Amino acid sequence: MVKFVVKSDGERVPFSQEKVELSIMAACTDAELEDDAKNAVVKGMSKLVMMDLETMDEEMSSAQLRELVLSKLDAAHPEVATAWREYEESKNV
Questions:
Q1: What whole-number distance in Å separates Cα of residue 87 and Cα of residue 51?
Q2: In angstroms, how far apart are the furthest CA atoms of the chain?
Q3: Which residue pairs, CB below 8 angstroms and at least 24 apart, start in 46-51?
Q4: Among 7, 43, 51, residue whose Cα is nearest residue 24
Q5: What is the domain extent for residue 57?
Q6: How many structural domains is the chain composed of?
Q7: What pLDDT, in 10s, does the model give residues 16-31?
């Protein structure tokens, strides 16, 4: 089970399911989903991600975690994955 996330600067922080859910919620908002749909996506995606994290080592990089979440979103809610990536692109400009 993943217990720690290693950020891009090397900092090792405790894994937070809440942070994952907040990121998914923000992408759902950017994708302009209705509130009920947002909550359903966050709940469903969080459950899928947590199931995968239970079978992994105690530590993973933030980039690996991002890719895991985005792969789940790509498969089930591509519009949310697209909104996530567009937000990231807008931050890097």
A1: 26
A2: 37
A3: 46/17, 46/20, 46/21, 48/72, 48/76, 49/20, 50/17
A4: 43
A5: 4-91
A6: 1
A7: 999 999 999 999 999 9
